[in-house]
Amino acid sequence: MTTPLPEEPVVPADKPLGGPANGAAAPAVSDATVDPAAGANATSVPETTVQTVEEQVVLQRSVRYPRLMITGLVVGAVLGAIVTLFFPVSDDYTIWQVMGFIALVGATLGLALGAVLALILDKIVSRKRGTATAVRIITHDAD
């Protein structure tokens, strides 16, 4: 069984629309007059005014350094471990010791190469900038 959705308040066309910036419901605006004889039971609804401001903003893409560095670290460690399998191991160390050491060296080199790649990509991407129009909506409650 479905429950009916509540109806949205109808706002006259000559009244401004808008509400608080935090997403809360805006007070309903109506043309009804309050009867002074109603006394304390009468409530007044403050009107909300909405102001829009258009601003030019600069858009610039950026490189995510941690992602490239972590990717380089993982790729370097895996390649270092795989390279170990292609070379003979001496009797002084086990295959796992050699693989771990070479994986650490590969991870360090991969981290450094990932950082250098991030710096190069950042220089390339920072050349491309764009502009856009941002619309800021400001609401004021009449007190």
TrEMBL record:
InterPro entries: MFS_trans_sf (IPR036259). The lineage of its organism: Bacteria, Bacillati, Actinomycetota, Actinomycetes, Micrococcales. This is MFS family permease. It comes from the Bacteria. The keyword Membrane applies. The chain crosses the membrane at residues 68-89, 95-121. Residues 16-27 have a biased composition (Low complexity). SUPFAM superfamilies: MFS general substrate transporter. The keyword Transmembrane applies. Residues 1-27 are annotated as: Disordered. Gene3D superfamilies: MFS general substrate transporter like domains. Keywords: Membrane, Transmembrane, Transmembrane helix.
